[in-house]
Design a protein that fits this description.
The protein is an alpha/beta fold and 558 residues long. It has 25 helices and ten strands.
């Protein structure tokens, strides 16, 4: 009978790797990911413990298990350690002889017993993608040498290459030891190395542990828990599990988690108020699982939104002139200093995936909303509220006429004032966004890709000119205070600022500082400055008006 309560016991590994436990790595778990650094660190720790005191115990952390039968357990947390320990025991087994080799083999594989009604089987079964490989090359006696000699083609999956690499690193270390030291290590590992084994009756209990526990291995992400809830409901889960993992691999772990946050926002239409682990099942998953529609969640929600999310990152809808403008708007949005715009963008991309005209017009309006928010220095709460309004209006069928896509007259006034004001005093990333958009307008889109590793904002009239400089002669103190941080006096550089060079007089500064490494200016804003022979209040004022007008017209802030 399954236990009805959580239990936690401290066991030596010699007890963990016995017939009391049949470990299974569920398919919803991430692949084996420990690298050689983690694997050799485990051996280093054991060796240090061996050298310090032969009787001192070594604590390896904890396992979190969900019991599935009298001896069968799904591993919720601890896959990395159990897999690496199995590799370690298998290497020690293949390097040993006689009774010691048999005892070590029994830690890796259940030999079977008719009296106890135990069938021969591995102690640990990896995910379906890796189980056969692991049995063949690790758990089967005498195959470790074959494993470490495998090519990348022989170990086709990344997880299998990790297994091979770790086996190779551990084998090289242990093969250099003498028999006596390897036996002492085996004794320490089985008798004086301990794990705290936490068993739970079901996944709900495991979730609670997950939210507070930080074990030594690679912890589960919330998305792994969601995967267990969805894939576990499907009778034929292998293809869905593979599709899920492909989406995660494409986006990367952090972006994949952000995807679930955005899906929660799109579905719920409200801002997050609790942790994702609690809100996502309540607000999204439960409806699908309770109605037996787990496959629909993957097909109709996860995969389409994952593809939409990827397009917001790659800004690449593929070939075709009709998509070039869509890609450019996504590129501009990606430079905004927050991602609150993304849920309505994902909704639009998912529902209009083949409509380049709609997406181009919608993303243009969305970028305008983002720019106005940025210019006004809007705080998080009202900014998110605006995007949620847009999302709700889209879902109700408003389309490009969604009222919240249009700034109010007051918001336009405030945005215009910001453009005409001291742009440099804005938060740095926001000021850089304004100047990059302006530079793009001046370049008329030609070559404005902005892939430079460094993009810095520089003043033409310096902030602190030397008392004997031309700047002090050409500008009164009031003029310097007024113009220094405004658009008319700013440009972009693709190299780091130079505290000494920034105070050069204008002619020297043009030749020695405002040009790129190739001797030419990289940005249209900078080229514009280089066309002037002098830099005076009148020049800045004229430039200020032209640049401000360009942005006001671009964002339709009249």
């Amino acid at each position: 009978m399954k236990p009805q309560t959580l239990s936690a016991h401290e066991y030596p590994l010699g007890k963990v790797f016995t017939s009391d436990f049949e470990f299974n790595i569920p398919d919803y778990q991430r692949p084996y990911r420990w690298g050689t650094d983690q694997a050799t660190q485990l051996l280093d720790d054991l060796e240090d413990s061996l050298d310090r005191d032969g009787s001192e115990p070594y604590f390896l952390g904890s396992l979190v298990l969900v019991q599935q039968g009298d001896r069968a357990y799904d591993v919720i947390d601890g896959q990395q350690r159990l897999t690496t320990l199995t590799i370690l025991f298998s290497i020690l087994r293949d390097l040993a002889r006689g009774d010691l080799a048999r005892e070590l083999s029994n830690l890796v594989r259940e030999p079977g017993s008719e009296l106890a009604e135990l069938v021969p089987r591995p102690r640990l079964t990896l995910r379906a993608q890796d189980a056969k490989f692991f049995r063949q090359y690790v758990q089967e006696p005498g195959r470790i040498v074959d494993l470490i000699e495998l090519s990348d083609n022989g170990a086709g999956l990344e997880s299998q290459r990790m297994i091979r690499n770790n086996a190779r690193a551990l084998y090289e270390r242990l093969a250099a030891w003498d028999d006596s030291k390897r036996k002492r290590l085996a004794t320490l590992a089985t008798n004086r190395t301990f794990l705290v084994v936490v068993t739970t009756p079901n996944l709900d209990s495991a979730y609670r542990i997950f939210s507070v526990m930080n074990a030594r291995g690679l912890d589960l992400a919330p998305t792994d828990i969601f995967k267990s809830m969805v894939i576990g409901k499907l009778p034929d889960s292998s293809e869905y599990s593979k599709s899920w993992e492909n989406a995660e691999e494409t986006l990367g772990t952090d972006n994949f988690t952000d995807l679930f946050r955005d899906i929660r926002t799109v579905v719920n239409g409200d801002r997050a108020r609790r942790e994702l682990l609690k809100e996502f099942p309540e607000q999204v998953l439960d409806d699908y699982l309770e109605d037996g529609r787990a496959a629909d969640f993957v097909d109709d929600v996860l995969l389409p939104y994952a593809q939409a999310f990827e397009r917001t990152i790659a800004q690449d809808f593929g070939p075709g002139d009709e998509w070039a403008q869509v890609n450019r708007w996504l590129t501009r949005l990606s430079r905004i200093d927050n991602k609150d715009w993304r849920p309505p963008a994902l909704w639009a991309i998912k529902h209009y995936p083949d409509d380049a005209e709609f997406l181009s017009n919608f993303l243009r309006k969305l970028e305008r909303v983002a720019a106005v928010s940025l210019l006004r220095g809007e705080y998080t709460t009202p900014r998110i509220g605006r995007y949620l309004d847009i999302l709700r209006e889209l879902k109700s069928g408003a389309g490009l006429d969604a009222p919240s896509l249009e700034p109010s007259p007051q918001q336009k006034d405030e945005a215009r004032a910001s453009i005409r004001g001291e742009v440099y005093r804005m938060q740095t990333q926001r000021a850089r966004y304004v100047l990059l958009r302006l530079d793009e307008l001046l370049a008329q889109g030609a070559g404005a890709t902005y892939e430079h590793s460094i993009i810095s904002i520089e003043h033409v009239l310096p902030q602190s000119p030397a008392p004997d400089s031309q700047w002090v002669s050409d500008f009164t103190e009031d003029e310097r205070l007024y113009w220094t941080h405004r658009l008319g006096n700013l440009l972009l550089l693709n190299h780091r600022k130079n505290a000494q060079a920034r105070n050069f007089d204008f002619g020297t500064k043009k030749q020695r500082y405002f040009r790129g490494n190739s001797g030419s200016a990289v940005f249209a804003l900078t080229t514009q400055v280089l066309s002037h022979d002098t830099w005076t209040p009148a020049v800045i004022e004229e430039r200020q008006e032209a640049l401000s007008r360009a942005l006001i017209d671009e964002w339709n802030l009249q």
